Amino acid sequence: MANQYPSGKPNPHQKNSKFAKNYGPRRNERIRVPRVRVIGPDGTQVGVMPTAEALALARKYKLDLIEVSPNAEPPVCRILDYGKYLYEEAKKQKSNKTSTAKVKEVKLRPHIDRHDYETKMRNAERFLFSGNKLKITMMLRGREMEFKNIAFDIVKRAIADLNHMGHADSEPKLMGKNIGVTISPVAQNQRKLKYSGEDEDIPEEDDSASDSE
Questions:
Q1: pLDDT digits (tens, 9 = 90+) for 193-211
Q2: Domain segments of the chain as ranges
Q3: Which class does domain 23-97 fall in?
Q4: Which end of the chain is more exposed for a tag (fewer CB within 10 A), N or C?
Q5: Radius of gyration over alpha carbons of the chain, in Å?
Q6: Residue 109: phi, psi to the nearest 5?
Q7: pLDDT tens, position by position, 33-47
Q8: What are the DSSP calls for 13-52, one per residue?
Q9: How far apart are CA 101 and CA 42, in angstroms?
Q10: Measured between alpha carbons, how far is 139 from 147 in angstroms, rounded to an integer?
Q11: How far apart are CA 103 and CA 202, in angstroms?
Protein backbone atom coordinates (compact mmCIF):
# COMPACT_ATOMS: atom_id res chain seq x y z
CA MET A 1 0.00 0.00 0.00
CA ALA A 2 1.17 3.57 -0.76
CA ASN A 3 1.06 4.81 2.82
CA GLN A 4 3.01 1.90 4.32
CA TYR A 5 6.68 0.95 4.50
CA PRO A 6 7.71 -2.52 3.23
CA SER A 7 7.55 -3.70 6.85
CA GLY A 8 3.84 -2.94 6.91
CA LYS A 9 4.20 -0.05 9.37
CA PRO A 10 2.44 3.27 8.56
CA ASN A 11 4.56 5.89 6.83
CA PRO A 12 4.78 8.86 9.26
CA HIS A 13 5.52 11.22 6.35
CA GLN A 14 2.22 10.42 4.60
CA LYS A 15 -0.26 13.30 5.22
CA ASN A 16 -3.31 11.09 5.65
CA SER A 17 -1.55 8.60 7.93
CA LYS A 18 -3.19 8.08 11.32
CA PHE A 19 0.32 7.86 12.74
CA ALA A 20 1.00 11.42 11.59
CA LYS A 21 -1.96 12.73 13.56
CA ASN A 22 -0.20 11.93 16.81
CA TYR A 23 2.42 14.64 16.21
CA GLY A 24 0.12 17.52 17.18
CA PRO A 25 0.35 20.93 15.47
CA ARG A 26 3.30 21.57 13.17
CA ARG A 27 5.99 23.71 14.73
CA ASN A 28 9.36 25.23 13.92
CA GLU A 29 11.14 23.44 11.03
CA ARG A 30 8.11 21.19 10.39
CA ILE A 31 6.22 24.22 9.03
CA ARG A 32 6.95 23.93 5.29
CA VAL A 33 4.73 26.65 3.76
CA PRO A 34 6.61 29.68 2.34
CA ARG A 35 4.71 32.40 4.24
CA VAL A 36 2.70 32.57 7.47
CA ARG A 37 0.67 35.08 9.43
CA VAL A 38 2.33 35.53 12.83
CA ILE A 39 0.83 36.26 16.24
CA GLY A 40 3.43 37.39 18.76
CA PRO A 41 4.05 36.11 22.29
CA ASP A 42 1.78 38.81 23.74
CA GLY A 43 -1.12 37.88 21.41
CA THR A 44 -0.71 40.84 19.03
CA GLN A 45 -0.69 40.53 15.25
CA VAL A 46 2.83 40.73 13.87
CA GLY A 47 1.77 40.27 10.24
CA VAL A 48 2.50 38.09 7.21
CA MET A 49 6.13 37.19 6.60
CA PRO A 50 8.33 34.44 5.15
CA THR A 51 8.32 31.35 7.36
CA ALA A 52 12.10 31.49 7.80
CA GLU A 53 11.79 35.04 9.13
CA ALA A 54 8.99 34.00 11.51
CA LEU A 55 11.08 31.12 12.79
CA ALA A 56 14.03 33.45 13.37
CA LEU A 57 11.73 35.78 15.33
CA ALA A 58 10.52 32.90 17.50
CA ARG A 59 14.12 31.90 18.22
CA LYS A 60 14.89 35.50 19.16
CA TYR A 61 12.26 35.14 21.91
CA LYS A 62 13.59 31.64 22.74
CA LEU A 63 10.15 30.26 21.99
CA ASP A 64 8.50 28.01 19.38
CA LEU A 65 6.68 28.85 16.16
CA ILE A 66 3.41 26.87 16.30
CA GLU A 67 0.96 26.50 13.41
CA VAL A 68 -2.47 27.04 14.99
CA SER A 69 -4.64 27.54 11.87
CA PRO A 70 -3.16 25.40 9.06
CA ASN A 71 -6.15 25.87 6.74
CA ALA A 72 -6.04 29.67 6.77
CA GLU A 73 -4.50 31.54 3.82
CA PRO A 74 -1.73 32.00 4.71
CA PRO A 75 -1.58 29.63 7.73
CA VAL A 76 -1.59 31.33 11.13
CA CYS A 77 1.27 30.68 13.56
CA ARG A 78 1.77 31.74 17.15
CA ILE A 79 5.05 32.37 18.92
CA LEU A 80 4.70 30.44 22.17
CA ASP A 81 6.37 27.96 24.45
CA TYR A 82 5.21 24.59 23.05
CA GLY A 83 4.79 23.06 26.51
CA LYS A 84 2.62 25.99 27.59
CA TYR A 85 0.57 25.64 24.40
CA LEU A 86 -0.15 21.96 25.11
CA TYR A 87 -1.11 22.84 28.70
CA GLU A 88 -3.55 25.52 27.52
CA GLU A 89 -5.12 23.16 24.99
CA ALA A 90 -5.56 20.47 27.67
CA LYS A 91 -7.27 23.02 29.93
CA LYS A 92 -9.63 24.00 27.11
CA GLN A 93 -10.58 20.38 26.47
CA LYS A 94 -11.19 19.80 30.17
CA SER A 95 -13.32 22.94 30.36
CA ASN A 96 -15.36 21.84 27.34
CA LYS A 97 -16.01 18.44 28.91
CA THR A 98 -17.13 20.09 32.13
CA SER A 99 -19.47 22.43 30.32
CA THR A 100 -21.26 19.48 28.66
CA ALA A 101 -22.43 18.08 32.01
CA LYS A 102 -26.20 17.61 32.06
CA VAL A 103 -28.69 19.13 34.47
CA LYS A 104 -30.81 16.43 36.10
CA GLU A 105 -34.00 17.17 37.99
CA VAL A 106 -35.63 15.73 41.09
CA LYS A 107 -39.22 16.77 41.82
CA LEU A 108 -40.71 16.86 45.30
CA ARG A 109 -44.17 17.47 46.77
CA PRO A 110 -45.06 19.03 50.15
CA HIS A 111 -46.64 15.82 51.49
CA ILE A 112 -43.98 13.39 50.20
CA ASP A 113 -43.69 10.28 52.39
CA ARG A 114 -40.44 8.98 53.82
CA HIS A 115 -40.00 6.13 51.32
CA ASP A 116 -40.45 8.42 48.29
CA TYR A 117 -38.15 11.03 49.81
CA GLU A 118 -35.40 8.47 50.36
CA THR A 119 -35.79 7.25 46.76
CA LYS A 120 -35.49 10.83 45.54
CA MET A 121 -32.33 11.35 47.58
CA ARG A 122 -30.76 8.17 46.17
CA ASN A 123 -31.48 9.34 42.63
CA ALA A 124 -30.22 12.85 43.39
CA GLU A 125 -27.04 11.48 44.94
CA ARG A 126 -26.35 9.30 41.90
CA PHE A 127 -26.88 12.25 39.53
CA LEU A 128 -24.35 14.37 41.45
CA PHE A 129 -21.94 11.45 41.80
CA SER A 130 -21.86 11.23 37.99
CA GLY A 131 -20.85 14.89 37.71
CA ASN A 132 -24.25 16.28 36.71
CA LYS A 133 -25.74 19.46 38.11
CA LEU A 134 -28.97 18.83 40.00
CA LYS A 135 -32.16 20.85 39.98
CA ILE A 136 -34.53 20.28 42.90
CA THR A 137 -38.07 21.36 42.13
CA MET A 138 -40.76 21.47 44.82
CA MET A 139 -44.11 21.46 43.04
CA LEU A 140 -47.06 23.21 44.70
CA ARG A 141 -50.54 22.63 43.32
CA GLY A 142 -53.80 24.36 44.28
CA ARG A 143 -54.17 24.71 48.04
CA GLU A 144 -50.66 23.35 48.57
CA MET A 145 -49.51 26.97 48.26
CA GLU A 146 -50.71 27.28 51.87
CA PHE A 147 -47.86 24.96 52.88
CA LYS A 148 -45.02 27.02 51.43
CA ASN A 149 -43.12 27.03 54.72
CA ILE A 150 -43.24 23.23 54.91
CA ALA A 151 -42.19 23.02 51.27
CA PHE A 152 -39.19 25.29 51.83
CA ASP A 153 -38.17 23.20 54.85
CA ILE A 154 -38.22 20.01 52.75
CA VAL A 155 -36.06 21.62 50.05
CA LYS A 156 -33.57 22.87 52.65
CA ARG A 157 -33.51 19.40 54.21
CA ALA A 158 -32.73 17.90 50.78
CA ILE A 159 -29.85 20.36 50.33
CA ALA A 160 -28.48 19.35 53.75
CA ASP A 161 -28.92 15.63 53.00
CA LEU A 162 -26.87 16.06 49.80
CA ASN A 163 -24.14 18.33 51.16
CA HIS A 164 -21.65 15.44 51.02
CA MET A 165 -22.13 15.33 47.24
CA GLY A 166 -22.86 18.93 46.19
CA HIS A 167 -23.52 22.50 47.24
CA ALA A 168 -26.44 24.80 46.44
CA ASP A 169 -25.67 27.53 43.92
CA SER A 170 -28.10 29.89 45.69
CA GLU A 171 -30.90 29.93 48.23
CA PRO A 172 -34.14 28.11 47.24
CA LYS A 173 -36.55 30.49 45.48
CA LEU A 174 -40.28 30.50 44.83
CA MET A 175 -40.89 30.79 41.08
CA GLY A 176 -44.57 30.79 40.27
CA LYS A 177 -45.97 27.64 41.87
CA ASN A 178 -42.62 25.91 42.23
CA ILE A 179 -39.72 26.26 44.64
CA GLY A 180 -36.41 25.63 42.93
CA VAL A 181 -32.71 25.36 43.67
CA THR A 182 -29.71 24.11 41.67
CA ILE A 183 -26.92 22.04 43.24
CA SER A 184 -23.44 21.67 41.74
CA PRO A 185 -21.35 18.54 42.44
CA VAL A 186 -18.26 18.74 44.62
CA ALA A 187 -14.87 17.77 43.16
CA GLN A 188 -14.77 14.19 41.91
CA ASN A 189 -12.29 13.02 44.56
CA GLN A 190 -14.64 14.28 47.30
CA ARG A 191 -17.78 12.44 46.14
CA LYS A 192 -18.73 9.60 48.48
CA LEU A 193 -21.98 7.68 48.08
CA LYS A 194 -24.05 7.61 51.24
CA TYR A 195 -27.46 6.29 50.21
CA SER A 196 -26.53 3.74 47.53
CA GLY A 197 -23.70 1.51 46.36
CA GLU A 198 -21.28 2.23 43.52
CA ASP A 199 -22.49 -0.87 41.66
CA GLU A 200 -26.05 0.45 41.35
CA ASP A 201 -27.20 1.75 37.97
CA ILE A 202 -27.53 5.49 37.49
CA PRO A 203 -31.11 6.38 36.45
CA GLU A 204 -31.51 8.36 33.25
CA GLU A 205 -34.19 10.51 34.88
CA ASP A 206 -35.92 10.70 38.24
CA ASP A 207 -39.26 8.97 37.63
CA SER A 208 -40.14 8.01 41.21
CA ALA A 209 -43.75 8.01 42.32
CA SER A 210 -44.46 11.43 43.79
CA ASP A 211 -43.88 13.32 40.50
CA SER A 212 -47.35 12.53 39.25
CA GLU A 213 -49.30 12.78 42.46
A1: 998 876 666 666 676 544 5
A2: 23-97, 101-204
A3: alpha beta
A4: N
A5: 28
A6: -125, 155
A7: 999 999 999 989 999
A8: TSTT-TGGGGG-S-BGGG--SSEEEEE-TTS-EEEEEEHH
A9: 33
A10: 11
A11: 14
